[in-house]
Amino acid sequence: MKFTVEHDDNIVIFTLKEPRLDSSTAPDIKAELLILCQPTIAALIVDLSRIEYADSSGLSALLLAYRQLRDHKIPVILVGVRETVRNLFRISQMEWLFEFYPTTEAALQQLQAEGD
Description:
By secondary structure, the chain is of the alpha/beta class.
């Protein structure tokens, strides 16, 4: 699984670099998210702009991140989500768990505005 991890102060930006978020990639993503989702971060931004296909295994990886951070009231923000993938969130009734933004920059601007 190819991905990058960047830090903007205490905001983690996790960018998936492959077109699939499914059972073939979910185990690696879950392992990395367990490491990244610490109570010391302010937010987790997951860039899904390259994801063309997702299934329930892929969604479970993102749900893991949500569960790791929810007790600390740390948002999991999804950016660049294509409509076909967003529909999967709607169908599974998971859409309300996450914040959605068109780009990483838009999410960072909103987080900075909330911090002011």
